[in-house]
Design a protein that fits this description.
This protein is an alpha+beta fold. Helix content is about 55%, strand content about 10%.
Length: about 800
Amino acid sequence: MNAAAVIERSPVLRYLLRAQHIPLIFSVTIVSGILYHYAPEYTWLWILLSIGIQWVLFRLFDYVKKHPVIGGAAYLATGIAFLMVAFIFMSLGRETPPFAPEDPLLRLDFMVWFLTPQSVLTVKFPGYTIALFVLFTMFIATTAYYFTLVRYRVLMSFVVMVFPFAIYAKENEDMPIPMIIILLVCYFSVMIYCRQAHAESSDVYQRYAPDSVSHLKAPPKNSPYAKVTPEIMDGRFFQSIGIFIAAATILVLVVPKPEVEADRTVFDTMIDLSSLSDYLENAIRGFTDSSDSSDNFNTGYSRTLYYATGDEPLNLRMRTFTNYHYDKDEWTAAAYDKMPEQSDPEYVEQDGFYTLASQTDPQELENLLRKAAQAHPDFAEEYGLTEFAAEPVVPQDYYRYLRVMSATFNYFTFPSPIYLQRAKLLDGSVRPPMFYHSGNSILFRYQQARTFQQEYEMDYLSPDYFGSKSAQTLIHAVDPDEWLNLLTDAAIYYSEGEDSVMLRSALDEALNAVHLDHTVESETPDSIKQLAEQLTAGIDNPYDKAMAISDHLKYSGQYIYSLEYQFAEDDNLETFLFRNKTGVCRQYAGAMVELCRAAGLTARYVEGYAMVDKDTRPFVGAENVYVITTEHGHAFVDVYIPGAGWVQFNPTASADIVPSTRGARLTKALQFSGLILFGAALLFIALTVWIIPMIGEFLFRRKFRKNMDAAAVQAAFARLRKQWKADPAETARDLCAKQEQFLGVGLQALCSGFEETVYADKCSRETAERVYAEYCAAHDAYKPAVRRKRKLDRAARRAKTAAAET
């Protein structure tokens, strides 16, 4: 039994394989292919749901074609309903089991789930999958119907067909071969049928013949296939398709594939996959494990991330890294840099957030040590704090207020300064509204939060404190080798109360710094050790050593800050210090960390944002509003200083963070080029459609008036033939009679004058003048006549449609 007989005997197949149903099958195949990637175990469910829902949608679209106003309103209402259903399932998928994971720590935002490779996820998100199905069903059905049954566009049909391929390409996964074959067969079927349905009569290869042998029923009279329907779905059609599929499959499977080593340099430069991976990793786990030199804080574009209201420029921290690998030019996170367990017993509840007990307030610590030294002279004498205790203190407030509003979406980590005193999320819709503060001073939440246009505020200790006279006196009075003993003995004097907690926190922080120093895996080269020794020669105080290293990088003039510098594959911190001496904040901060460690100091590499540029938007309502964009990404250094704690240093050579202008220049150049091309296109259109023909007509008429001879008359008639798109075989008399009625002007003088020049080979001036007058009238009347005809044709079509509906 051949394919045609099978179709003839099966009403279901005969119904589905009607020409007007090919776009429906095409659309169902695309949606099913997309959902197969996210939930393959429910493939048949997606297919059945797609057929049912999209069949209803296609009937709705048919109604929209017949009744544009009422149908358009119905379509709009349907679209809104689909969006509402999708948003409902997104909400359920974010928070409500079984549509969301049972474990709150494993829940993700919808866009993060969509962008994240499914192979990475360990749990299912049924709510998000259903929401994706709803969105794609409406979108694919609309586009497939429009670009096949309303306005056929082969390119747009191809773009719609590519969606499943794009999903698999996004995941970097192989697409099942049967799915590829099915999608391509459906696409070719759409090309064949819809091309025929929208073809002009001269392009139709076979019209629908009701009396001929057919395996299809006649299409409905209101169908786009009513007038022209290709009749090719017979046995020969299936034989051709079968041969094509078999041959293509054999070639794909049998023919050996060449071994090609692709050069992905340009692609990887255009699309920073490392940054996307880090973004998704941050969304999934909150803290990234690595930071390489792929972007060097040079995004090439500017996007606003945060607005901040504060009293001073700040370095806001997002993550820290401990280990540097010279072979990869990469920083990696140690256990110290990662998200602590939520059940960590060292968490202490503070004003608005939980902080680890090792977080110390340096100014409070200074006051406690001064009180201990004043109350116990022997303690002061043993640790060299006598002058520190006797020095009069001028009370000064170094605590500052900062308010941050997110201009985009944020997830686990939140930009914040070091030494927070208070942190509060101002949006009451986020539950629980509690921040956590890790031992490396990162502000975060264990549950990701959508912070788009949401605000949080905090109090913090200003970095200016460490430059104060009292802080510097303590820093230089303390013997670094006795710092742990000093804190241990001071804790004896404050064995109870809040003072005891503060001193124990300071002791824990000092011990953690010592532990961090012993867990560093970086192998610092001898050249860097020698440079560190030169820079710190004769300096005993850790703070002064760190300042000497920072000043060398920042003010020596040996290093160049450049966002445009192209780094080689073998570049690292050693080559930055001794060979190219050019880089951005990442190189400066990394070099300082390695130099500090070589000089015996405990240091850590920090990434975040530089809050340095004021917001220039009008009517922002405050003077001290800063804007933080993607171009403000910054790296800086924390150094542990006995007598103070962790102190931030900014060794970057530029006085302030200079945002990259490359992206702005590129954008402006593209905009300028686009304007030039747009203007050139408009000029070209004006020249070819209006100006050049107008000038040509003006010159022709001038020449006609000058000559007034037979040649001018024949040239005028030839120009009119060209304008009218006349058949070359049509006689002048027949053509003029037809055009008289169409144009509404007399053409007798034109016709007789032309015949006189052809047959008598002569033309008087009086005849030429009459021909010229009628030529001008006919030429000028042509375009208005064409517009009138189009208007009448549209009215006739509307009347015919209205009569057919009634």
